[in-house]
Design goal:
InterPro entries: AB_hydrolase_fold, LYPA1-2/EST-like, PLipase/COase/thioEstase. The chain is α/β, with parallel strands linked by helices. It has a single domain, classed as Rossmann fold. Helices cover 33% and strands 13% of the residues. The protein is built from 6 helices and 6 strands, in the order αββαβαβαβαβα. It has helices at residues 12-19, 65-83, 107-118, 139-142, 163-176, 196-209, and strands spanning 36-38, 46-48, 101-105, 125-129, 150-155, 183-188. The strands form 2 sheets. The chain has a 4-stranded parallel β-sheet with strand order 3-4-5-6, with helices on both faces. Strands 1-2 form a two-stranded antiparallel sheet. Strand 4, helix 4 and strand 5 (150-155) form a beta-alpha-beta unit. It is globular.
């Protein structure tokens, strides 16, 4: 799941790069695009967005939980097509939930965490890139109590998602939600973007959590 203002096209090159890895050629990448809607921090102008965003500097200003849940429902429909074998190209082959990774960048990483941490069935893992934990004041009560591999990557010079929020989010997942050593935190000297070292590390992680 892409970030604010982006589309699936923005991550197509990364998916292709990962897919060229011999060890990952069995993996199917599904790249959805968020709906277009008004965004508060964009002065109310419309853009692709998984939910409305009020602030990136004060997460206690409130979060658009209803918007998050609406997008989550749409993405779960895509996941259901994978698990029931009805997605184009699967030819009826069903992908079990424990073989599905929920991944996203920035706002998309919020969605990946919200969905994975509250999923009734245990996913293969969550990959949260340059992002923050959603609904942090109530996530403990929402957490499904499943634990599984968790990959977080963050730029230490990110001007949009402050490093301290990413660090705090990771510590919360690792300690408060009980993921322990299943949670991996990766840091890179990069802005609000992806870098080659991060994608290499993500590929290695995917090899482990979704083996052939």
């Amino acid at each position: 799941m892409h970030g604010l203002g982006d589309t699936a096209q923005g991550w197509l090159d990364v998916a292709r790069a990962l897919g060229r890895n011999q060890a990952l050629q069995h993996i199917r990448f599904v790249l959805p695009t968020a709906p277009v809607q008004p965004v508060t921090i964009n002065m109310g102008m419309s853009m692709t967005s998984w939910f409305d965003l009020y602030s990136l500097t004060d997460l206690d200003q409130g979060e658009d939980e209803s918007g998050m849940r609406k997008s989550a429902a749409a993405i779960w429909d895509l996941v259901a097509q994978e698990t029931n074998g009805s997605a184009p190209g699967l030819n009826g082959h069903k992908v079990p939930m424990n073989r599905i990774v929920l991944a996203g960048f920035s706002q998309g990483g919020v969605m990946a965490q919200l969905m994975g941490l509250t999923a009734q069935e245990r996913p293969a893992g969550i990959a949260a890139l340059s992002t923050w934990l959603p609904l942090h004041q109530k996530m403990a009560s929402m957490h499904s109590k499943h634990t599984f591999p968790f990959f977080q990557a963050q730029g230490t010079v990110d001007p949009l998602v402050d490093y301290k929020y990413a660090r705090r989010s990771f510590d919360y997942v690792q300690s408060s939600l009980g993921f322990g050593k299943l949670a991996e935190g990766h840091e890179y000297r990069m802005p609000h973007s992806a870098c080659p070292a991060e994608i290499t590390d993500l590929g290695s992680w995917l090899e482990r959590v979704v083996p052939v």
